[in-house]
Amino acid sequence: MVEQVIIDTDPGTDDLAAIYLALASPELKVEAITTVYGNIEVQTSTRNALALLEVAGRTDIPVYKGVVKPLIRPIKFAKHIHGDNGLGGVELPIPSVSVAEGYAAMEIVKRVNEAPNEITIMAIGPVTNVALALSIDPSIAQKVKRIIVMGGAVRVAGNITPTATFNLNCDPEAARVLYESGAPIVQVGLDVCTKVRISKENLDCIKESGNRPGAFLVEAAEFRRQAYSKAQLTSDTETGVFFNDLPVVAYALWPELFEVQQAFVSIETAGVLTAGQTVAEFTGQWGHPEANTSILMGVDGESVAKRFADRISTLEPKSSSLIN
Prior knowledge:
two-stranded antiparallel sheet; nine-stranded mixed sheet; 324 residues; 11 strands; globular
């Protein structure tokens, strides 16, 4: 059965890997893309989303622009990892299609209500759009199939502070709205993201396939690899790259490759040094017998990486040039 998805995103060098894996997978039908600030400004993330779809020949998928900033906090970006244009400095042609009319949060509400229990939201940027949608119509928490969130760190350090990950640290209040909404949540955090290394061999496989999306992804990957190395975010960047958003889509496709644990997750909003931390109380501990989140705690990273490379290699159109 094909799963209908809305991808809420801030493209983003790792977002493009996740988006292209979704487009390459017949098990998924991308109904819409909603954009959010995060890695770069929302205006740029929206343009990037449109351009990524055009490169893949999928301008049939509507893109809805979302919020420009967090609910109450100052805005922050991650251009040191993604480049000023969000795509590692790789330039794409100006999109020939325009953003769809309407607001991202309202479109999420509309689509979930129109297809109850059928829509999966893949939240791979700050979750402000999703929190606004849940605030506009709290009933969609019981109508959405699931919300797969890229963010959080339980047994490893964060990547923006020692305790928090970038997406949730950008807007902890929005993350709290999401986690307290009652919606079925899958947390795809650094506990698994740092274990999925896309090796040089994987990238060579993609490059040799000769398709435009793959060629673009490989070029953008090099900027990301160098950025991670400079920031010392991992110790294993010399022979590969990590696309943190990729496991969100991979889990939807191949759940058997992941270890899942149930927990009650709270979002820290009051701490000066811990804002956005995912505080996980595993089932039966500290008075929380009921879980609100399925947390991915383990992964067969090598298998995910190989399947990812194989899928991306199937994308069309075929061309070694980004501008043809």
